[in-house]
């Protein structure tokens, strides 16, 4: 697969999984989608700045939010997503520790670990569906 095909796979997977998780998920899945969308948009806005700490900070905030969600909600997919995000952070740390590392490896590892967290979200929605749990109603938050 060439780079363009991989990029297309990543983008299509991202938007399709977000839509499915929002449509069929409960509050934790919808919160996960919201966090991933904010991380994605913030990353797109911060990347052109070319300041070395903006993307790692963005990903560290997502990791903190996923850890918080893992402690708050009883969902296994959040732990998998948090572990994948921790691996993204290790990719940031490794390239900061050794700037001679190939940037393709750095970006590729961030994509692979990011897609792992994304598919964990999809698996969590699938598990809910298989267990017969109903998706949340039309409102995002209902107390």
Question: How would you describe what is shown here?
Answer:
The protein has 143 residues and is an all-alpha fold. The protein has five helices and no strands. The protein has helices at residues 3-24, 27-46, 54-72, 76-97, 103-130. The protein is globular and about 50 Å long.
Question: How much strand content do the residues show?
Answer: under 5%
**Structural class label:** mainly alpha
End-to-end distance: 47 Å
Segments where pLDDT lies below 50 for 5+ residues?
Answer: none
Radius of gyration: 16 Å
Calculate the mean pLDDT score and round it: 88
Layout: helices, strands, pairs:
Layout: H1 3-24, H2 27-46, H3 54-72, H4 76-97, H5 103-130
Using brief descriptors, characterize the structure shown.
143 residues; mainly alpha; 78% helix
Briefly, what is this?
By secondary structure, the chain is mostly helical.
């Amino acid at each position: 697969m060439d780079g363009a095909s991989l990029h297309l796979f990543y983008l299509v997977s991202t938007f399709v999984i977000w839509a499915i998780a929002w449509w069929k998920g409960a509050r934790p899945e919808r919160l996960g989608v919201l966090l991933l969308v904010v991380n994605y948009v913030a990353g797109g806005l911060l990347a052109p700045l070319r300041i070395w700490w903006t993307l790692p900070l963005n990903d560290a905030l997502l990791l903190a939010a996923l850890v918080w969600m893992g402690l708050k909600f009883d969902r296994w997919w959040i732990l998998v997503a948090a572990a994948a995000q921790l691996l993204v952070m290790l990719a940031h740390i490794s390239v900061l520790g050794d700037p001679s590392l190939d940037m393709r490896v750095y970006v590729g590892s961030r994509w692979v670990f990011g897609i792992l967290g994304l598919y964990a979200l999809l698996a969590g929605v699938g598990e809910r569906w298989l267990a017969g749990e109903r998706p949340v109603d039309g409102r995002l938050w209902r107390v």
